Amino acid sequence: MRRDRSETLAKTLIRRYLPELVYGANDGIVTTFAIVSGIVGASLTSSAILILGFASLFADGISMAASNVLAERSRSENRPSLREASRHGAATFCGFIAAGFVPLLAYLLPSFQIPRFALSAGLAGAMLFFVGASRAFFTDRTFLRAGLEMLLIGAGAATVAFGVGHLGAQITGSAGRPP
User: pLDDT at position 126, please?
Assistant: First the structure.
């Protein structure tokens, strides 16, 4: 009986905060992988990827959470309490951190036969598709369409970041050794 009640509570909480979890997760993956891509494009080190990746992950996660709280509290009608708005912000933060961490895994795990950037891209792509596809639970899109849409948007952002990093390294002459 107690187990059924806790499962029901968990499902209710997930349903209530699913949009924030997905929103945070999508942005976390795109932002973190864009940082990784920009650093690889600039031919900087793996240490730079981890330092800037984690700094960005937490700073952007906090920013997203705070923005969500303020957006919730900016409603004219049905304005939630600060406590309830903070719960929505916390869900955004958790989604952002959990999913945004995935592209950095390739630089934390032991070395594999494939290059770390390729592994990071594969992990980010799979996570983008999975999180994008999960939007089908609360939209009129199919899993495939929603997943591909998010994957393409994320790939576009990573491509731009890689190009800007590469161009920046060329302009400044500050390219390091390849990660």
Answer: 96
Sequence-distant (6+) residues with CB within 8 A of 169 are 41, 42, 43, 44, 175
How many CB atoms are closer than 10 A to CB 27? Answer: 21
For residue 35, give Cα distances in angstroms to 11, 44, 130, 132.
33, 11, 20, 20
Which residue is associated with the tokens 């600039």?
42
Q: Residue 43: which of 169, 161, 172 has the closest Cα?
A: 169
Tens digit of each residue's pLDDT (9 = 90 or more) over 108-125 = 988 778 899 999 999 999
Amino acid identity, residue 168? G
Q: Identify which has the larger pLDDT, 140 or 53.
A: 53
Whether the per-residue pLDDT at 176 is higher than 70: the answer is: no
| 17 closest CA partner among 9, 6, 5 | 9
- What percent of the chain lies above the pLDDT cut of 70? 95
- Alpha-carbon distance of 163 to 8, in angstroms, equals 47
